Amino acid sequence: MNAEIIAVGSELLLGQIANTNAQFLSGRLAEIGIDVYRHRVIGDNADRLEEEITEAEKRSDIVILTGGLGPTKDDLTKETVAKYLGRKLVMDEPSLKAIEEFFIKAGREMSVNNRKQAIVIEGSTVFFNRHGMAPGMFIKTESTCFVLLPGPPREMKPMFLEDVTPVLLNELGAGQPVVSRVLRFFGIGEAELETRIEDLIDTQKNPTIAPLASDGEVTLRLSAKHAVEGEAWQLIEDTEQLILARVGQHLYGINEETLVNKAAELLQRESKTIAAAESLTAGLFASELGAIAGVSSVLKGGVVCYTNESKRDVIGVPQSILDTEGAVSERCAIEMAERIKQQFNANIGISFTGVAGPNSLEGHPPGTVWIGLSIDDYPSTALMLSLRGERNYARIRAVKHGLFQLIRSLEKK
Amino acid sequence: MNAEIIAVGSELLLGQIANTNAQFLSGRLAEIGIDVYRHRVIGDNADRLEEEITEAEKRSDIVILTGGLGPTKDDLTKETVAKYLGRKLVMDEPSLKAIEEFFIKAGREMSVNNRKQAIVIEGSTVFFNRHGMAPGMFIKTESTCFVLLPGPPREMKPMFLEDVTPVLLNELGAGQPVVSRVLRFFGIGEAELETRIEDLIDTQKNPTIAPLASDGEVTLRLSAKHAVEGEAWQLIEDTEQLILARVGQHLYGINEETLVNKAAELLQRESKTIAAAESLTAGLFASELGAIAGVSSVLKGGVVCYTNESKRDVIGVPQSILDTEGAVSERCAIEMAERIKQQFNANIGISFTGVAGPNSLEGHPPGTVWIGLSIDDYPSTALMLSLRGERNYARIRAVKHGLFQLIRSLEKK
After folding, report:
1. In this predicted complex, what is the ipTM?
2. DSSP secondary-structure letter at B364?
3. What would be the CATH architecture of the domain defined by A2-172?
4. Which of A16, A41, A66 to mutate to test the interface with B (most CBs of B within 10 A)?
5. Cβ–Cβ < 8 Å for A330, A341
6. What is the CATH topology of the domain spanning A259-412?
7. CA-CA-CA-CA torsion sign (A258, A34, B152, A67)
8. Can you tell me the distance from the alpha carbon of A118 to that of A93, in angstroms, rounded to the nearest whole number?
9. Do A303 and B302 touch (CB under 8 A)?
C-alpha cells in the first residue's frame, strides 16, 4: 500500500514552522511497511485543497491530511473533504461534551466557533482527541482511505500512534489482526545491524522485519499477522529473542521510547541522582534531561567547564593531569565524572570532554570525545569516541552516546 | 509573483529528515514579498519529478527545486529539468576545477561520479557552491523561473541568500535594482510592532515594509526599488530611521543575524568573558552559545543548579535568601549572576531561575522566570518574565530573553 500526506496551513507556507508532522508520519508509515510517495503542503484555501484531494484519491491508497480542523473560518479541511465525498457533517457528541466540559473547568465562555470543532464527517470512524479539542477521522471510499488529523503535533502524534495505526494495520492485514513493535538500537550502524540479522530479514515473512536509520539510531519494526492476536504477539516475541541474542547489547528501548526519556525513567526507577561535567557539550546533556517533566527529582545539576581553568578551579581536576595528559584524555574524563558526583552529592557523575571543532585541540582531531561515568562506588569507566561531521553534530552525538552508556549501566545494576 | 517549492529526496519520504529547506525558503520568499502557494516532496524518481515540474510550470511564476544534484545515479534533478526544457547538459568548468582541487587537497581519488556534479543545464545562470560541490542554477522560460539548489541546508542557505535572492529581486523589480534589508526585533509582539508603525506600513510603497513573526521574534523586511542602487539603499536607510525611532529598543540584529550569533559576536568584539548559572534552563543557555564555533574565547562555562542544595553548595547562594525570598526571586537571580561571575573569573555572570512547569513552585505559576545579569563592576540587574506555554517553550523563550538582555547591555557599554 502507498500513502501521501497533505498538510494544510498557511503558517507552513510562510515558513513559520517546518512540516515535522509529515516527517513523523512518514517514519511511522515506513515502519509498518506503507510507502509514502508524496508530501504536499497547501495554505488555508478550499479550492487548492479540493484539487489536492482529487489528485490524491486517483493515485494513493491512503491519504493523510493534517491541520485545518480548528475552530476558525480558515479551518476547512473536513468541510472540503465532506463536500468532495458528498457526505454530510454531523455533531460528534462525545467531542462536544469534552469541549463543553473544558470551558466549564476553565471558567471561560464557550464561543459558537468551538462547537464547530466537534463536527465530523458522517459515517467516518471518529478518533477522540485526548490532547486537544478537534477529533480525527477515518473514511474509506472505493479506492482510498482518508485520514484526517489535527495539526498540532502534540495532538496528532498520540492520535496517530494509538488510534490510526491499528486501523491501518487492519487495512494492511485485510481483516486479520496485525500487531507490531519497534526495537530501538544505538551504537550500531544500519549496515552492520542488517548484516548481523540478514538471514532473519530475508527468511522471516511473519513477522516482517523492517529496519530504519535516522540520526545515529537504528530501529527495527516487527509486524506480525495472525487470526488470533495473542498468537501474533507470540510470533513477534520469538523473532525478537532471535534478534536480541545477536545485537541485544545495542537495544535501548521499544516503541516510542527515546534515549533521554529512557535515561530519565531509569534514573527515577532506580532512585539515582545525577550530575554532569560538560566541556565540549557545554550544557547540552543537562539541558536534554532538563526537558523532561519531573526530572528535578534526579537531576542535581552540573558544571559547564569550557576552559581548563574552570576544569581545575570549579571542578577540581588537578593541574598536573591537565599538564601531562591534557583535557582531552581518559584520565581527565574520569576525574571530571568522579569530582562532579561528589560536588553535587549525586549517585552518578557523567563527563564530556573533547574537540567540537572546527580546529584540533591538544593534537586531537575534531570529533575526539571522552565520556566518563562514575556510579556510586563502582569503578569509574571512560569511553572514547571518534565522531565525524560538523561541530554540532559531534556535540549532539556525544550526548546520545552519554545517554546510551548511562542506560546500559543502569540496566545492569 | 508566486512560487512553489519542490524538494527531491527519498530520505524526506522515509521521515529521516524534515523538510526544513522549504521552511527556510518560504520564510525568505515571504520577506521579499513572494507568495508561496505549495510545497511538494517527492522521492528520487524521474517520472514523478517530471509530473511535478510539468504541473508547476503551468501555475507558478517561480519553481524552486532542492536536492538531487549529488553524484549518485539517484540524483536526477538537473537531468529531469534539462529533458523537460529540451536543453543540453554541459560541463561547468569553475565547478569542475573546484571539485578536482578538493580531491587533490584531500589526497583522495576522484571518481567519475564526482565529475557529474559539475554538469549544469545549458544556458542557465550558474551559482558556484562555496560550501559543497554541486552548483545551483537559474533558468527562465517564457512563463516561469526555475531555480535548482543543492539539498544540504548548509550549502543551500548561503547560496539562496547570497546568489538567488538578488536574481529574484531583479525579477521582481522588472529590471530595476531591488535591494532589501531585514530588521530583527525581540521582546515585542507582532501585533504591537505593527500597531506602532501602522501608518508607515500603510503609506510606504518604496520601500515596502513586510512584517513576519516566528518563534518569539518579529522581523521587518524593507525592500526598495530604484534605477540607481545607491538611491535604493538611501530609501531603505530613511525608512529604517523612522522605524527605529519608534521601536529601536527592540532591535537586535539585521539580515541573517540570530540572537545567539549576535551575542557571541558582541562578546568577542568587546573581549568580555561570560559564565552562566542555570536552574530551569538546565544548561540550555551555555549549550546554545557552545554551538558557535570559536566561542571558547569568551564562554568560560557555568553551573547547572537544578536543586536549592546546588545553588547553595556549588554556587554559594546564602541559605537565608533561599529560605526567605525563595529560589524564584530577584534576589536569588542576582546572587547567582554575581557569584557565577566570580567563580569563573568572568566579566559577565548571567543567571536563570524560575518555574518550567508543569507544576507550580514556591507559589509561582509555571512560566515565572527571573534572569539576573552582572557585568564587571556595574550594578547587577534582574528581569522577571511571565511566559506562557509548555515547559520547553518556557525554557527556550527564557534563553532568548537572556540573550537579548545580554545584547542590549553589551551594545550600551
Report:
1. 0.73
2. B
3. 3-Layer(aba) Sandwich (3.40)
4. A41
5. no
6. Maf protein (3.90.950)
7. negative
8. 7
9. yes
